[in-house]
Amino acid sequence: MNIDRAAVKAAVKDTVTVIGLGSMGSALTAALLDRGHPTTVWNRSPHKAGPLVERGARLASSPAEAVAASALTVVCVLDYESLYAVLDPADGSLAGKVLVNLTSGSPQQAHEAVVWTRSHGAEYLDGAIMTTPPGVGSAEMMFLYSGSEAVFTAHRQTLAALGDPLYLGADPALASLYDAALLGLMWSTMTGWLHGTALVTAEKTEATAFTPVAVRWLTAVAGFLTTYAPQVDAGHYPGDDATIDVQLAAVDHLIHAAESRGIDNSLPELLKSAMSRATAAGHGADSYASVIEVLRNPAGAAG
Amino acid sequence: MNIDRAAVKAAVKDTVTVIGLGSMGSALTAALLDRGHPTTVWNRSPHKAGPLVERGARLASSPAEAVAASALTVVCVLDYESLYAVLDPADGSLAGKVLVNLTSGSPQQAHEAVVWTRSHGAEYLDGAIMTTPPGVGSAEMMFLYSGSEAVFTAHRQTLAALGDPLYLGADPALASLYDAALLGLMWSTMTGWLHGTALVTAEKTEATAFTPVAVRWLTAVAGFLTTYAPQVDAGHYPGDDATIDVQLAAVDHLIHAAESRGIDNSLPELLKSAMSRATAAGHGADSYASVIEVLRNPAGAAG
After folding, report:
1. Nearest-angstrom CA–CA distance, A28 and A21
2. Between A108, A264, A270, which is nearest B266 by CB?
3. pLDDT higher than 90, residue A249
4. Which bin fits B163, alpha (ψ -120 to 50), beta or left (φ > 0)?
5. Do β-strands B142-147 and B123-130 pair in parallel, antiparallel, or remain unpaired?
6. Contact criterion met (CB below 8 Å) for A161 and A221
7. Residue B243 touches partner A, C-beta closer than 8 Å
8. A85 to each of A44, B96, B183, how far by Cα in Å?
9. Cβ of residue B5 closer than 8 Å to a chain A Cβ
10. How far apart are CA A301 and CA A293, in angstroms?
11. How do residues B150-163 score in pLDDT, each as one tens digit?
């Protein structure tokens, strides 16, 4: 009989260290414990570790001890200032380790963290968590990673305990860049939804009645994005389905309806301005995707 | 043996008239013909009827003749000015008929159209088409209706040839109001996506690589909207998952990343301003849903 070495290995889960036990770090730790990973934790305020220690986590007495406990350390703290404040005193433990940094930050900060980590002999993977703490541990939720592909591949199975791990590329800044871009999409969508909700709730419709229609509509909108993405890559925006000029006529209905109900119109006015600038730049008969030209070239379009 | 009267009735499809054969009106007519509805059409430029007549449509010689041909007339013209220009000369044919108006317009224009239609002895249903012409005929696509529920119910099966018919309520302005709100959501989402696409494509990522991630992220965002809708109805916005203050810190990463790549930042600056106003109004520890308070009360929040 063969011994199924892969099955044996899968049954023995890698040990992991988690530094930072805010609501997100605590959720990451809980997800690792749920999947059977022996997990060491550290947090500046040790009392936050209490509920996790009850579930089996081991509390380290210092960041250095925490980093030394596992080959892989996941860091999720408030910002990069906190990250260096925690890791600087632990730098002697970093040699030969892997640091997965899930702290929110800018692409530039990710680049700096690679340099810092490598100077201490550790490998670095940057990540972005595309969910809220209650979503951690669900395979539906995306975790974005960038940096060394070899490190990602080696630890992919462990990272899968946190959510669905997507590898974006070798440039360590990509996860932060995608994170910023996707958060911008989220805030735009949420603000557009809130503006529409303000409009319909002014007419005795409940948000809970409007929102299922809005959510279903987002599926159609997602289809438009999928149609428009190749137009953006080609720099050619055929307006077969709906031209900017037609949409410019419709945006006034929104502005007037909101204005007469006393609702802030700065968002639809901005959208109208973007469409107007696209039309002025010669894209009136093109699709909405051509608005990217004025976003990429604000000075030119304004002049 | 019983005669299955329902089956016999279903096999004999109601005749329908379509007025206006732009790209949308032509798609509506094609969908009706595809489902076996005898369809009469009229358009100011009769040559547009050619391809539809080849597929079995009957071309009327006047709007009055077109309206007289069917119990149900669907109108989809450029705007309400065009609507009255076409239907005024046909007003003698309207008595006892049903007018389904899919022309884009404002809630106020829908109210005026009910009065006008009733003054000619016809019933009125207002509608909004939540797809582009290629999506017409798909049961996945939403067609929103408001006005007489009895009229909607009587013609629901015929309207289902065009898309999935959703009835919003007796106020005839609701379809236009939802339409405006949903288009605002669409433009907000598309512009947020284009801004994010401008950001990642500045770093040699293709729009077609970023967009599947963005589309998947929209599913998570839709989950947030579903979480936040009851908060809006309750006027209480617990920030358990993510507070405005935390998101205000993150929006600067987006603004700096876009600024350093020469991308127009008016959209993220507006989003930051909305969040800042919410924080100033005491919602810093609340969820993003609390931004609706500053949208509803722009003067108060600005003062």
Report:
1. 9
2. A270
3. no
4. left
5. antiparallel
6. no
7. no
8. 10, 78, 47
9. no
10. 8
11. 999 999 999 999 99
CATH superfamily for domain A5-170: NAD(P)-binding Rossmann-like Domain (3.40.50.720)
Largest CA distance in chain A: 79
The fold adopted by the segment(s) A202-302 is N-(1-d-carboxylethyl)-l-norvaline Dehydrogenase; domain 2 (1.10.1040)
End-to-end CA distance of chain B: 77
B229 contacts in chain A (CB < 8 Å) = 197, 207-208, 210-211
> Burial level of A190, CB count in 10 A (0-12/13-18/19+)?
buried
> What are the beta bridge partners of residue A17?
A40, A73
Chain A residues inside the 8 Å CB shell of B131: 220
Q: What is the ipTM of this complex?
A: 0.92
Reported as a pLDDT band with limits 50, 70 and 90, residue B7 is low
Cα-Cα-Cα-Cα dihedral sign, residues A68, A69, A70, A72: negative
Contact A149, A170 (CB under 8 A): yes
A53 touches chain B (CB under 8 A): no
**What is the residue whose two structure tokens read 């809630």?**
B107
Smallest Cβ–Cβ distance between B185 and the set A105, A141, A192 belongs to A192
**Where do we find the tokens 């892969």?**
A6
pLDDT score of A212 more than 60: yes
Tell me how close the Cα of B38 comes to any Cα of chain A, in angstroms.
26
Nearest-CB residue to B203 (from A134, A177, A211): A177
Identity of the residue in B177, B264, B268 whose CB atom sits nearest the CB atom of A200:
B177
Q: Give the whole-angstrom CA distance, residue A197 versus residue B296.
A: 10
User: In chain B, where does the domain assigned CATH 3.40.50.720 lie?
Assistant: 5-170
Contact A295 B198 (CB under 8 A): yes
Residue ranges, CATH 1.10.1040.10, chain A:
202-302
Task: Give residue B40's pLDDT band: very low, low, confident or very high (50, 70, 90).
Answer: very high
Q: Contact A249/B190, CB-based, under 8 Å?
A: no
For B14, the 3-state DSSP assignment is coil
Contact B274/A191, CB-based, under 8 Å? yes
B180 with A195: Cβ contact below 8 A: no
